[in-house]
Amino acid sequence: MSNFIVSTKQHAKTAWGIQGFPIIMVINIFLGISHAFILPFNSLFGIDEVGMSNTTFGIFMLVSSLCGIVLSTGIAKLSDRVPDRKFILILCSVAGIIGYLGFAYSRDYYVLLIFSSVFLGIASSTFSQVFAIGREALTRSDVPAKQVPLYMNILRTIFALSWTVGPAIASYVLLFMGFTGLFVVAATCNAVVAIIALLFLHRRKDSAGAKSEKANIPLKKIVFQPTIFINLVAFTFISAATTLSSMNMAQFVTKVLGGGKEDIGIIFSIPPIFEIPFMLGFGYMATRMKSDRLIRLGAVLALVYFCLLFFANATWHIFSVQILSAAYISITSGIAITYFQDFLPEMPGTATNLYSNSNKVGNMLGFVLFGLIADAFGYRNVYLTCAIFTLAAVVLLFGLNRAKSASNQASVSG
After folding, report:
1. pTM here?
2. What is the DSSP letter of 46?
3. 119, burial (CB in 10 Å: exposed 0-12, middle 13-18, buried 19+)
4. Residues 12, 154: contact at Cβ < 8 Å?
5. Is 116 exposed, middle or buried, given 0-12, 13-18 or 19+ CB atoms closer than 10 A?
6. How far apart are the first and last CA of the chain?
7. How is residue 41 annotated by DSSP?
8. Is the pLDDT confidence value at 152 over 70?
9. Neighbouring C-beta atoms of residue 207, cutoff 10 Å
10. Residue 288: CB partners within 8 Å, gap ≥ 6?
11. How far is CA 183 from CA 27, 97, 203, 235, 385, in A?
12. Would 132 disulfide with which of 95, 96, 143, 348, CB 3.0-4.6 Å?
């Protein structure tokens, strides 16, 4: 344990010495705050503030996510062709400013749908661009390839750090300033990201030609490689479960367990506290073992977590199992980024976007199913659906591993 702590301190110190990496870490803090202020309260905004039904809210989020996938895929391919991602990151941040300001001052369903589909669809690429820039900074540095997962998890930990207090603070902003204040804070965070990127993020000097040649591989050919495709499906299932849980939590706590809005803030603030040591720990483990083992562990932990939520009868039950949420998220949203980037090491934008799009497709599935399941079977049974999705992911990931082992044995014996 002491060796791990000493090693982590040394790696954290090294991270601050990598050119461009500290700037990306600071940007990630503000990006994380904007997410932490908005995501936990999405369903409350749509259903309680705007007056959508469970079903219309699901349709709203479905359309928004579909547009986000289309826009972010195009942006990711473009970012792997151009020599510098700086201005693409700024463009995405500016789109976030416009999108969140639209949400702050409009309550019209169709106006909000436009802001969400177009501007927040573009802004959804910000996350992928930040981690692609981070991976490129590590590639240019002297960091050994084996240690890249640890440094990427340090970057992901910075994002999680914003969630340690973000939802709790956001719940009080919501109480005193309403949803207008909530979205203005999110817009301000995106403005800070754009300003930092403009003033402090250095432009790349690489040749555009080299990147363009590698980025011309058809996306269909990449996606339907068996290993990539099975992982995409598995992560889509995990994302669908996570989205269903996130959308359902506020309603489950307030309408089934009898909790208050302050409980929602606490529930969403607990996992990030544990995500920080978990991400560092799993990142350290990834330097000593294959990432796919950790990915399978994350899927199993997610299955256990959703099963326990299904049986929760009090808010304190949820408080206690949020540690499991932190554990599985630390793997499926930390190690997973490097895991996908390793599939396409010369196309970090596309690779990160594939991971991000598996989340978005899962989001869409969750958005559609949330209203249907909640209306037909109640908020508690939403968590049974989450468990079924994660069980499917576990089966796919372990099945892929067995297929790989059988293939390796066949090649050795042949």
Report:
1. 0.77
2. I
3. buried
4. yes
5. buried
6. 43
7. G
8. yes
9. 9
10. none
11. 18, 9, 30, 29, 31
12. 348
DSSP type of residue 257: S
Q: What is the pLDDT of residue 272?
A: 74
Report which residue type is found at 252: F
What does the alpha-carbon distance between residue 50 and residue 47 come to, in Å, rounded to a whole number? 6
Closest CA to 93 of 68, 59, 127, 56: 127
CA dist 161 → 37, 67, 154, 245, 401 (Å): 13, 29, 10, 21, 32
What is the 3-state composition of the chain as percent helix, strand, coil, each rounded to the nearest 5? 85, 0, 15
Q: Are 150 and 60 in contact (CB under 8 A)?
A: no
- For residue 385, what pLDDT is reported? 96
- 26: helix, strand or coil: helix
Q: What is the pLDDT of residues 129-144, one digit of tens each?
A: 999 899 888 888 888 8
Residues ≥6 apart with Cβ < 8 Å to 80:
211, 214, 215, 347, 348, 349, 350
For 124-149, b/e burial (b = at least 16 CB within 10 A) is bbbbbbbbbbbbbbbeebebeeebbb
Cβ within 8 Å of residue 310, ≥6 positions away? 380, 381, 383, 384, 386, 387
Q: What angle do CA 396, 397, 403 make, to 5 degrees?
A: 85
Instruction: Using the predicted structure, report yes or no on whether residue 153 has a pLDDT greater than 90.
Output: no
Q: Is 300 helix (H, G, I), strand (E, B) or coil?
A: helix
Closest CA to 128 of 156, 106, 103: 156
Asked if residues 296 and 205 have their Cβ atoms less than 8 Å apart, the reply is: no
Exposed e or buried b per residue across 158-175, where buried means at least 16 C-beta atoms within 10 angstroms of its C-beta: bbbbbbbebbbebbebbe
pLDDT tens-digit readout, 106-126: 999 999 999 999 999 999 999
pLDDT of 277 > 50? The answer is yes
**What's the CA gap between 319 and 323, in Å, rounded?**
8
Q: Which residues contact 28 (CB under 8 A, 6 or more apart)?
A: 130, 155, 158, 159, 162
Cα separation, 142 vs 144, in Å, equals: 6
